[in-house]
Amino acid sequence: MRKHWLDNIRWVTVLIVVIYHLFYMYNAEGIAGVVGKITSMEVQWFDLFMYIVYPWMMVLLFIVSGISSRLYLENHTDKEFVKSRTTKLLVPSTIGLLVFQFIQGYVNMKLGGYGGEFDSAPLFFRYLIMALSGIGVLWYIQVLYLISLLLVVVRKIEKDRLWKLCGKTNVIVLILLGALVWGSAQILNTPLIVVYRFGLYTCVFFLGYFIFSHDEVIERVKKWFPLFAPVALGLCVAFCLVYFGKNYADVPINRSPLFTLFAWFMSLAIIGGFARFFNFENKVTGWFNKRSWGLYIFHYLGLSLVALLIGKSKSIPAWAIYLLSITASFTLGYLLNEIISRIPFFRWAVLGISKKKDEHVQG
């Protein structure tokens, strides 16, 4: 039976990522690489949205990816899994950079103020730099691909012995795992590009694979949702009170106990809540779910184009820039998905779709 709650977590979280990037683009906290503050407000209180969602949204997506990998591997071989992940993850984050995402790279570089020597460099050199600069949101699938390869190795060693044992995970263990999540956040972090957190994301991916892929564990998480939800809410309030106005995405905040515990308990609360209340599919959820991948891949281009052409110059009121930016994110994101998913080579290179109508599986 398909786990509709898992699909619903995925597409809802992608929508949250899109909205997060809107506030991130015009943040007043001095986070580099974006336009920054465009309002005249002394304090941009709506930036709180970033603090509310950033610690847990990608942690949750990696947990979902771990669960989905287990579900896929129940009906496919390791070889089929690697082939599928290579097409879905590696191709868009490598070949996709060269055939499409260099456009995003160009926009990113213009937002960052690059020019001068770069503009006078040989065309091929500029093209390669733009392609690398176009990674953007694709960091997620790059990290996920490497973890997926590691999973194949781990499966050959543990041969489901650990997986079966993890089916006994109770609420006490789930709570104590917060310490493991905090510990993993301290290791394998790249020094300059803060999103590449291999320790944290590998940890939560494997927790998804080994623990949350068990129906009996999900039943326990559902049962204890009334505990996890208020704890997560309390940690959310505490995180915002302590860190609002500071760079939440970098050290030391993104390795702090408050950051990681908030991420962990919010993930538990969302998994329990969705499994309990949103385990269904209708036309609306089905529509969003089928397009969430394309929206994730393409949404940042529309946002950054508006930011470059209008946001930097502040030629219209700030509220109109915000409105145009979020509209462009969704409109261009969905439009590019509809167009590129129908073009044979590009649907493979950019979206990782190997067939005209890619097999819609929960992996």
Give the arrangement of secondary structure elements.
Elements: H1 4-25, H2 48-73, H3 78-90, H4 95-111, H5 117-120, H6 123-133, H7 139-158, H8 161-166, H9 171-184, H10 198-210, H11 215-223, H12 225-243, H13 257-277, H14 283-311, H15 318-340, H16 344-351
Helix pairs in contact: 1-2, 1-13, 1-14, 1-15, 2-10, 2-13, 3-7, 4-6, 4-14, 4-16, 7-10, 9-10, 9-13, 11-13, 12-13, 14-15
Give a written overview of the molecule.
The chain is an all-alpha fold and 363 residues long. The radius of gyration is 20 Å and the shape is globular. The C terminus is likely disordered.
Strand content: under 5%
Spans of at least 5 consecutive residues whose pLDDT stays below 50 are 356-361
Number of helices: 16
Structural class: mainly alpha
If you average the pLDDT, what whole number results?
A: 94
Estimate the global geometry from the Cα principal axes: globular
Q: Determine the N-to-C terminus distance.
A: 13 Å
Q: How many runs of DSSP E, i.e. beta strands?
A: 0
SSE order, one letter for each helix or strand: HHHHHHHHHHHHHHHH
C-alpha-based Rg, rounded:
20 Å
